Amino acid sequence: MNIFKRLFKIGEANAHSAIDSLEDPIKLTEQGIRDMKKDLDASLHSLAEVKAMAIRSRNEHQSYLNKVKDYESKAVALLNRAERGDMSVDEADRLASQALVKKKENEEHAQRSQADRERFDKSVAQLEANVRELRHNISKWENELKTLRARVKVSTATKKLNKQLAQIDSSSTVAMLERMKDKAAQEEALAESYGEIANESKSVDDEIDKALKDSPASQASDDLAALKARLNRNKGTDL
């Protein structure tokens, strides 16, 4: 009975527990099943012993009934012999009376063995009911254990997958690309900042020279000077 109460508590706790805590109910259920199997072995042993006593009392009862009939037959046979004159009436009556005494003793033994037989048969019926209930409960909890193990496998696999997905979410390629974009934007901003600093560091003369160099008149003057120089070189070559 304690086992049933414990298993009921296990089932009750299991119904309200989280999936992560299913390992302990499995171990408790396994232990409960082992305990029930021990009880089943003990019940089967007791059943065999009580059945043996029931069989023995049944055989004894039948043996006593046979003796009752036998002594009664002997008493009748003795009286018949006396009636036929094969033996004296007194001797026949004495022996017949002894046979009837034996008959009475065996009737009492038969009644006692009958009571023993009924008591043992009742115990056998009770033990057989206990054995059936234990076997039923063992089968029930073994099936429950299979279900619990399957749930643990599914929950473990789901937890592992969810954990992997969670890790991907925090350090995934997408997150890495976002960080790279931030870094590129930072580098671009830094380059632009250096450019502005370089422009700010130019002197007034540099700005004037740049302005003159970029003017169209200055460019034309430079081109003319270059052409004259080239022509003078050609003349020298012709000479």
From TrEMBL:
Keyword field contains Coiled coil: yes
Pfam families referenced in this protein's UniProt entry, alphabetically: PspA_IM30
Coiled coil: 110-158
Biased composition (Basic and acidic residues): 202-213
Keywords: Coiled coil
Keyword Coiled coil: yes
Region (Disordered): 196-224
Entry's family note: Belongs to the PspA/Vipp/IM30 family.
Protein name: PspA/IM30 family protein
